[in-house]
TrEMBL record:
Name of the protein in its database record: Probable M18 family aminopeptidase 2
UniProt keyword Disulfide bond present: no
GO molecular function (one): aminopeptidase activity
FHA domain mapped to chain residues: 155-235
Range of residues in the leader sequence: none
Pfam families: Peptidase_M18
Metal-binding is among the record's keywords: yes
Organism of derivation: Stutzerimonas degradans
NCBIfam families: PRK02813.1
Amino acid sequence: MPQTLNQSLIEFLQASPTPFHATRNLAQRLQASGFTPLEERDAWHLQPGGRYYVTRNDSSLIAFQLGSRTMVEHGMRLVGAHTDSPCLRVKPHPDLQRQGFWQLGVEVYGGALLAPWFDRDLSLAGRVTYSRDGRIESQLIDFRLPIAVIPSLAIHLNREANQGWAINAQNELPPLIAQVLGEENPDLRALLAEQLSREHDLIADVILDFELSLYDTQPAAVVGLNGDFIAGARLDNLLSCFAGLQALLHAAPEETCLLVCTDHEEVGSCSMCGADGPFLEQVLRRVLPEDESFQRCINRSLLISADNAHAVHPNYADKHDGNHGPKLNAGPVIKVNSNQRYATSSETAGFFRHLCVENEVPVQSFVTRSDLGCGSTIGPITAGQLGVRTVDIGLPTFAMHSIRELAGSQDLAHLVKVLTAFYSSSTLP
C-alpha cells in the first residue's frame, strides 16, 4: 500500500510543475472517478448524492460530494491544502543578453531557499495567453526538457562561499538558456509560440502574456538505504493535495465532503483564488444558499488544514522545542500556536488525535520554539473567513521550501488513512 501510493504521488508531482498543472491533474483524476465539472459562470443544478468539482484561475480547485445525510444537521467535512510552492517566476520582459548568453530575468515567488537552485537542470512550465483568429485563449505548456541552468560561481572566485553569502536575486538568479551567436535577438515570446505549436499543434497570432515558473527536472524518488524517504520538489504542499484527493475518492457516501486546494498560500493567500479570497465561501453559498441553513451547517462542520510540518533535523535538533520534535515516518503532526498562527484548538486537536488512535495511525505534535517566530498556513485564514472549526496538521518534512524536499516514505499512507476516516466519520465534535 505505501509503495503504490508513493509511486502514484511521484507521478503526480512529475506531472504538476506549476499550480496550473497540479489543478489540471487533480481535475482529470476527479473526472475519471465520476466527479462532474462545474463552471462558475453557469447555473448549477446539484443533485443529492452528486460529486462535483470547480476550478478558478486554472490554479485552485474545490471538489465536493453531497452526502445523503443533511448538511444542516450533520455538517461538512473539509480538507484544505494549497497548490503553490516557492519557486522562480519569469518576469514579463525577461530577455537578457549578457556576455554572449541568453538569460531570463526572474523574481522569487514565496519564501524560497535560494542556494539549492544553483547547478540544477531546470525546465519551464506555466500558462500562456495568446490571440488566435481574433480570440484570446490560454494554454498550459511544459517544456519538460532541461533548458536552463543557474551556474554557481567557482570557489576560486568566491573564497567565502562556504562561510555563506547573501544571494542577490536580481543579479545572481537569471538562468542561462542558450548562447547567443552573431546578431541573434533573444525572444522568449517566439520560443513560447514554438512550444505552443509543438505541444498543442496550434499557431498563435500574438503571445500576449504568460505566467511561467522554472522547475527542477529531476523526478521525485524514494531514496535511502532502506527506502525510508521520498525526495522531490513541491512536496509542500502537493503531498497534502494528493493525500486529500485519495481520501475524497474513498469517502463514505453518507457524508458531505470537500477538498479545497487553493493557490497563493506561499505569498499570503490574498487573491481571488486564494484562501484569503471569496472562492470557498462563494462555492458553499451556492451549495447552501439559505443564510440560516448555511450558518448552522458551518457551525457543525470541521476543517482539517493539511500543510507540511517541520521534522526535527538531526543536524539542527536545537531548532526545535525538546518536547515537540516530529519525526519522519511517525505519522501526521498536529500543529499548535497560542498566537493563532495555527487554528488548532484543544477540541479540534482532541478530535484529530482520537481519529488517529481509532484508525491506528501514529500522531505527533509540533510547537515552535518560544524564541523563534512561527509560520502560518491556510488554517487560520479559512477559519477567520468562514468561522469553521479547524485543526492544522501536516506531514513532517525536511528542507521545506527547497527545490528538493524530503519526507518519510511511510507517512503518506498514514495521512491518507486518517483523512479517509475523517471523510467517513459520522460524528464531529
